[in-house]
Structures
1.
Amino acid sequence: RRLQHKNLPPGPTPLPVIGNLTCMRRNNVFLTFRELRVKYGDVFTLHIGNIVTVVFNGYATLREAFVQHGDSFSDRPNIFIFKDISKHHGIAGSSGDLWKEHRTFALKTLREFGFGKRGLESKIIEEIEAYLPCLEEKNGEPFNIHALTQTSVSNVICSIVFGQRFDYKDERFTKLMEMFDANFKLMNPILNFFPFLQHIPGDPFKAKQILRNADTVYAFIWELVQEHDNSMDDTYSRDYIDAYLKEKKERQSDQSNTFTDFQMLRSIGDLFSAGTETTTTSIRWAVLFLLYNPDVKERMVAEIHDVVGTSRFPNLGDKENMPYSEAVVTEVIRKANVAPLGVPHSCKTDVEFRGYTIPKGAVLLLNIDSVLFDPVEFPDPEKFDPTRFLNENGKFFGREVFAAFSVGRRACLGETLARMELFLYLTTILQRFDLVPEHADRLPSLEGVLGVTHTPRPYNVRLVSRQ
Ligand code: HEM
């Protein structure tokens, strides 16, 4: 290893074959990374199997690497999740010109369908209107909000991408959501570093199962694409699929056209999965944090009742007068730490960085956790304290040092949607329901599980109607 890569950032000595795999054995590996940062500094190297992995820590380092060196450090590595699932296509899994072209198209088209505008707000509120009666039906009995919330949040992105929402009891959609969820749980990061594991007979690492589940999701999307193709009007786009099909037709005579069916399926799959999982997980964390912090919950409820009252739903126009609620949403995003290690990047040539040589093809991890839990920027970082996002006049202020959505060219393209959804879902839930723990003497665990995202363990809560 030393002969092959001479000038790597420092890091623990690797063992033969497995490298530094033992560092990854803890459930939440980002906790280990906090210790490694203290020992090796803001940029350190791990060898996982034979893959060189460089971890970048702290806001200044992340900006230097992924903004200033953005041209070099914005590819995706050749690992299971991108190589075998997205096959280096789509928005999240592609690199180079293919990625630039399709990310630009996605941003432009999502804006046309209301990203950051009132049109999108009404879609979210419409979905919340369908969600509330399902919560009401639980009658204050303990239940796990996960499945209902996931279907509801997913419907928002479905209405933009597919131009339709699905009934909460729609069997096919429920099955799809379950499969989708299973993949987030089954995805063992180890598959990314030891590709041979996917070929072990009996599929103990569930690689084949993950690929089968992914194929089912793509088949579902494909059916909807075909329905669109048969019914679309060339002069008007009803939704993202129509817009894509139109673009594909317009470019069909172009030799270098990258607007293909395969690329469309992967792009839509990315919007669908990224748009569902992260926001749902954040809402699950939010409820948990509010159970632990009844004072925060009561202050937020008081603000909602003062500004909105109870006779109408909260809307985004209220946000300006609800700085505390906006601060709660931002603190939820910080403390939930949904993507603590971001999404892996790579570089296609050797790159000099702070005197080290980052080798071509290395896996680059943006340690977002190191920013969101930086005790200098966010004192007492484990504390759930929304007031860190309020200024001395009680007004909300977003902090520049906030990397939850990553930094640089690949930064999350759904941040606006996620913030809109979190504000509207959380304020509406609290306007209508009190959140009460299942057991009066015991709260659910705050310990998360790190898979593709950092999720809370399953828990039940009572939603007691305020009416
Ligand atoms: C709280 C919610 C969310 C969080 C914390 C979050 C966080 C992230 C992070 C950390 C990345 C990786 C960026 C990188 O590679 O450096 C990302 C990428 C991405 N996110 Fe989000 N996200 C959220 C919600 C959403 C939503 C609602 C959408 C729906 C449109 C979305 C769509 C995407 C896409 C398509 C990418 C890939 C971007 C690219 O590779 O160019 N995200 N997100």
2.
Amino acid sequence: MKVILIGFMGAGKTTVGQLLAKKTNLAFLDTDQLVSQRTGQTPGEIFATVGELGFRQLEQTILQENLVKQGVMATGGGIIELAANRQLLKNSTVPVIYLSGSFGQTVERLVKDNSRPIVRNKSLLELAELWEQRLDKYAEIATETIYTDNKTAEQVAEEVSQYMKAYHDETIENR
Ligand SMILES: Nc1ncnc2c1ncn2[C@@H]1O[C@H](COP(=O)(O)OP(=O)(O)OP(=O)(O)O)[C@@H](O)[C@H]1O
Ligand SMILES: O=C(O)C1=C[C@@H](O)[C@@H](O)[C@H](O)C1
Ligand SMILES: [Mg+2]
């Protein structure tokens, strides 16, 4: 991968990733979409049939298989739940961008879309608890954090692309 986007559900990883892929002329890969392609089921259906752990195992296989490919990867919001995935991301040389923002603006995006099983099954308080539990895990593996509040997805994609250019130039200089 050339870049991997991580962050909570609704951070904009898929939306920004698609815009970024266009901008940089790279392939777009999304772990949620790849899991769905492999199983023929949505994340919601997979959660309902094999549970969250079953989904996480599929997600891990997809992450491992696709890390070596060239492109922009958007991950699922829970990719950081498994220690093995955090290790895979930490050990890779790919820049990992954490799309971060306030809980308020993130929830505003999520309530407009009822497709996420984790959001559907949780109260706002439980979602806030999950948010708290996950923050350190995103920060721990990120090579860069980009704050998304009050920015359009296009603006965020532009910031990530600037970061990729700087990262690439620095890597060449250090060779
Ligand atoms: N910067 C932004 N400003 C406003 N709305 C946004 C922004 N980024 C994304 N959105 C909207 O928020 C919603 C969630 O975005 P998206 O599906 O890209 O999130 P995600 O991080 O991929 O979530 P998940 O972890 O569930 O895959 C979409 O409706 C999208 O259009
Ligand atoms: O944050 C999560 O746990 C999830 C996020 C989505 O991207 C999907 O991967 C699924 O709905 C679970
Ligand atoms: Mg997504």
3.
Amino acid sequence: MNTAIEVHGLTKQYGNHIVLKNLNFTVYEGEIFALLGVNGAGKTTTLECIEGLKKADGGQIRINGKMGIQLQSASLPERIQAREAVSLFAYWNQTEPDPGLLETMGIQEFAKKQYVQLSTGQKRRLHLALALIGNPDILILDEPTAGLDVEGRIVLHEQIRQLKAQGKTMVLASHDMAEVESLCDRIGILIEGKLAFVGTVAQLNEKVGKQYNISIRSEAGVAQFATEDIAETLLTLLAQYKAEGKGISDIHVDRGSLEQHFISMTRGEKG
Ligand SMILES: Nc1ncnc2c1ncn2[C@@H]1O[C@H](COP(=O)(O)OP(=O)(O)OP(=O)(O)O)[C@@H](O)[C@H]1O
């Protein structure tokens, strides 16, 4: 496997606060690699060191290929139209705007709108399109779906999958375990500036167990259950609620918070 990014002994501190502590990881060509961590774990700082926007205090970063960076929100002038931003980025990249790219990213539908008038989802799509203008080999995406509704996330996930199918390498930051599980090939988990785990989703599941949390709201209040077999547990619970005549008003299933996985990882326990 060819290497797209190699990070060796990366350290970074702000004053006395060491935020990245000797990070070592490799991103291979064509894969989606996620940096997963809670707020403040060091994800953005790591990405910015890779992007060259922040200077590392120690270590080496090797990049093999052309890199595209997805902008953060509110990075463009408020009054610039989406199509003007595209033209500007194309000019900087000494190329022409690619109508196919604009079509795929769904930019045409809001091409004449000013940046300030765009929804969060439209801004993200525009940022992704701008990152793609120079036809990079490697894409860096910092929390690409933050603030998006379910539909917006599904659309963006699909676009990210299409980019992978085209052979792009992607590194993304996220604090959403479920997103990372469905999208990424490998994960690096950052805990307080240290990489606590690097490996595939399957390897992570082996390590922390594949536990799901189920919350059921009914007249009797909210009850919570943990299981490794959602289908079986849900069927049993639904039958039980029905038999007891308890009307269900909401059901929520999740993969457990990152914090739960971190705690179990550091304790070496399951769940
Ligand atoms: N310019 C800065 N000056 C001082 N401290 C900073 C600066 N930028 C980030 N930090 C600190 O570095 C740590 C890591 O921040 P970073 O933004 O990399 O985390 P993150 O994992 O991306 O968090 P989030 O999910 O909230 O974006 C935090 O404690 C943060 O307060």
4.
Amino acid sequence: MNQQLANMIDHTLLKPNVQDEQIVELCKEAREYQFASVCVEPCYVSLAAEQLKDSGVEICTVIGFPLGANTLATKVFEAKDAIANGATEIDYVLSISDVLNGRWEQVEREMRAFTELRDEANAGVIVKVILETCYLTDAQVVEACRLARETGLDFVKTSTGFGTGGATVDHIRMMRETVGDACGVKASGGIRTREDALAMVEAGASRIGASASVAIVTDGGSNEGSGY
Ligand SMILES: O=C[C@H](O)COP(=O)(O)O
């Protein structure tokens, strides 16, 4: 097992039919392999936080997930509630409609709202913006990354795992080139093997989001994924 790789992985379980015992198991695995975080739906943040007390594993959750289509006020409320319940990492889906309609000032406003709520939380919370790159042009990916860097977000992230495509090496390279050292880059969606994960790291990813994390670090492969 490659510990360095494990330390970079958000151990993810995002499905409509998740139950408590699966979250308990996810947390057990995260503690054992020392993954960076568990990534769970907001309704499971409290349970995960309780399970992972004093483990060093962060509690990541997803906001406006998976479509990014909620209004900003709803996303902000959801994020604050998740932090109050114990979330330390917030992965929010950006307003894809604003990007597609060229409303970049709205995209920026949303990013600033997230950096503000992160700074107000003042508890080592970090924010990642999920771009859902499968729906964007390269120019839109670059512009979103440029704004994320400018507004001070912590990470840019490729995918929800529920779109028409996941992380690609080309997108990761483009995202890293745009944010430089100012932000982390998270590759997620469709990463099933150690080989997939290492290709993303090689291209510039500093975090991997995956449902198949255990298979990745134990050198196997898996068909496990979030998507429908
Ligand atoms: O946010 C992370 C993704 O949902 C993970 O995608 P995956 O289930 O395809 O590994």
